Amino acid sequence: LAGLGYVPDPKAPYDAAVKNAQAIDYLQFPRQTLSFKSGDCDDLSILYAALLSAASVDTAFITVPGHIYIAAALDATPEEAAKTMSDSEQIIVQGGRAWVPLEVTLVREGFLNAWSEGAREWQANVATGSAKLYPLAEAWELYQPVGLPGEAAAVVPSEAEIKSAYSAEVSRTARYLIEPQVK
Predict the structure, then answer these.
(1) pLDDT the model gives residue 86
(2) How far apart are CA 23 and CA 14, in angstroms?
(3) Mean pLDDT by 10 residues, the chain (183 residues)
(4) With contact defined as beta carbons under 8 Å apart, do 134 and 61 qualify?
(5) What local confidence, expressed as pLDDT, does residue 146 receive?
(6) Residue 128 backbone phi and psi in degrees, to 5
(7) Can you list the alpha helix ranges (DSSP code H) found in the chain?
(8) What is the pLDDT of residue 42?
């Protein structure tokens, strides 16, 4: 989307900062990430959570040791979601909801790759109790939002670019979900 890419934080990489209790990680506002066209895992997670939230999709942050990414809530019960999935380990069921884990650092590799890797990371860490899912709606009850002062972001992809990227991902995802059931 919009030529965004993953770039480790040059001042305080998360994997190094998390080992130092005194370190303070730098977090970009969504429009900064759009403007810079890059960010580390927390920056991309914040941006994608904001974009999905703006489209009325409930989101959550997922943390695993040394990393953060997001999940998007499905508009289906966990039972309904399980019926449509050929692999139930591709979703997270928590709090009575079904979530799709998305590895945002794979932003340039497509939705299905981001989903597959997010699910793999979750499964690899949930068994040891080191994976956590934090719904943003719950976090907003504790933490007040803050804004970035200044002018509005001028870095917005064209409508044609958005429609093209969206259509391609919807087609790939539909084939992924439907073809196993057709077979």
Answers:
(1) 79
(2) 9
(3) 73 64 79 87 94 93 95 94 86 95 91 95 96 92 75 63 84 85 80
(4) yes
(5) 74
(6) -95, 0
(7) 14-17, 30-36, 41-54, 78-84, 111-126, 136-142, 159-182
(8) 93
Q: Pairing state of beta strands 67-73 and 97-102?
A: antiparallel
d(CA 180, CA 21): 47
Residue 102 pairs with which residues in a beta bridge?
70
How far is the C-alpha of 41 from the C-alpha of 106, rounded, in Å? 10
Separation of alpha carbons 148 and 80, rounded Å: 40
Reported pTM: 0.77
Which two structure tokens, joined as six digits, stand for 100? 């799709």
Identify which of 34, 13, 176 has the alpha carbon closest to the alpha carbon of residue 110: 176
Exposed, middle or buried, 92 (CB in 10 Å: 0-12/13-18/19+)? Answer: buried
